[in-house]
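PROTEIN DESIGN WORKSHEET
SECTION A - STRUCTURE
LENGTH: 204
TOKENS:
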């Protein structure tokens, strides 16, 4: 495979931070906590940016420190900007502290992000949050908290909508090749075909 997907599970909510590697370059996705643990995975690589699949605190908590340490840009979808105002308050409800990240650029549905020899396509998949995105390349999908192994993302947070989540999964994810490996924001990997066949929350 021309894209190496490295999982770094971080923080008390066991968030899957992903380091995507190709041709000596790396893209960091969803750095929630544990900066040093993430940096260790980046050793010897040229980091080209940081991306959040959505703006909940457990996916962006380490962004500001990583930006300072690495000198790279932070990208997210514009629709989740309002959620950033609540990041610190939201984290405090769990007894946690994070810094509010500052986005440098915004991505939209259909945009392409490059890391090494690989182009990742941005899929806007609202539902868990208004600005939730997935990243797709070939038979790899980073699904954030939109789709999990045997489950789906919560929709009872501010800006959540099950109707939107269901539509996003049916039209943006279930239309991908069944062999596509799904790397979710929490928990183990799965495949598109497995979720189409067995996910009890969203049927094809």
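SECTION B - SEQUENCE
RESIDUE ASSIGNMENT:
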């Amino acid at each position: 495979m021309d894209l190496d997907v490295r999982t770094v599970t971080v923080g008390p909510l066991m968030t899957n931070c992903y380091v995507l590697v190709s041709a000596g370059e790396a893209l960091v996705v969803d750095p929630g906590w544990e900066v040093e643990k993430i940096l260790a995975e980046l050793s010897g690589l040229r980091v080209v940016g940081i991306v959040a699949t959505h703006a909940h605190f457990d996916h962006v908590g380490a962004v500001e420190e990583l930006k300072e340490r690495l000198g790279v840009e932070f990208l997210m979808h514009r629709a989740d900007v309002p959620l950033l105002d609540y990041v610190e308050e939201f984290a405090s409800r769990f007894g946690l502290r994070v810094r509010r990240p500052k986005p440098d650029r915004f991505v939209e549905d259909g945009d392409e992000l490059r890391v090494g020899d690989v182009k990742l396509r941005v899929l806007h998949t609202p539902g868990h949050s208004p600005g939730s995105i997935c990243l797709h390349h070939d038979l790899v999908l980073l699904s954030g908290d939109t789709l999990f192994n045997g489950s789906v993302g919560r929709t009872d947070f501010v800006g959540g909508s099950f109707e939107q989540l269901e539509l996003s999964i049916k039209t943006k994810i279930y239309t991908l090749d069944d062999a596509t490996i799904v790397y979710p924001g929490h928990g183990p990997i799965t495949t598109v075909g497995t979720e189409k066949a067995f996910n009890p929350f969203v049927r094809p």
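SECTION C - NOTES
DSSP finds seven helices and 14 strands in the chain.
The longest helix spans residues 162-173.
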